[in-house]
Amino acid sequence: MTSSSTRGPRRNPPPLDAGALERLALRYVERFATSRGKLSDYLARKIRERGWDGAPVDPRDVAQRMADAGYVDDRSFAEQKGAALARRGYGARRVADTLRAAGLEEEDRAPVLEEARATALESALRLARRKRIGPFAAVRADSRERERHLAALLRAGHDPGTARRVVDSAPGDIPELD
After folding, report:
1. What is the pLDDT of residues 142-155, one digit of tens each?
2. Nearest of 64, 83, 84 to residue 74 by alpha carbon
3. Which of 113, 135, 140, 144 could disulfide-link to 169, CB 3.0 to 4.6 Å?
């Protein structure tokens, strides 16, 4: 017999009410950088999991109150997430998909996407350095390896022109930034 079975059955947490939902939101924003959309999705999921007791509350309203109080800043979240993805070598398409999935509005995503497009080659070169592709490879890749490298850059969200430019570069011949 294991020690967990001697404690008895696990009790389900009580259903949420307005106060508990507010505390849950505060706990979430103190632990994670988030957007209003992600916070709203999290709260809605918790309501589905635990149930609700009391007058109905819209999770979007709670997320908006957190934003009004300064605990959630969508613009700052977008900038930080975009910069982190660019440092890892991801392209504009991947940045756009990530920000859209985080529930960010177009006005918060637009400046970050503009920056991602402006630094596309630099970001692609970071990924190429990490994966030893194109100018960072020891030897020029054969056609099969070249296709694999090209696919890696495309999966990372880079446009086909930038991906080809990096993959077609000879080892040691780093493309000039525009």
Report:
1. 999 999 999 999 99
2. 64
3. 135
| Residue that the structure tokens 């992600």 belong to | 38
Rounded CA-CA distance 28/153 in Å is 34
The answer to whether 99 and 112 are in contact (CB under 8 A) is: yes
**pLDDT at residue number 9:** 79
| Digit-coded pLDDT (tens) for 80-101 | 999 999 999 999 999 999 999 9
Rounded to the nearest 5 degrees, what angle is found at the Cα of 103, between the Cα atoms of 102 and 107?
110
Closest CA to 36 of 97, 99, 114, 90: 99
Cα Rg of the chain (Å, integer): 23
Give 87: exposed, middle or buried? Use CB within 10 Å, 0-12, 13-18, 19+. exposed
Contact 91, 158 (CB under 8 A): yes
Distance, C-alpha 117 to centroid of its chain: 17
What is d(CA 44, CA 27) in angstroms, rounded to the nearest whole number? 15
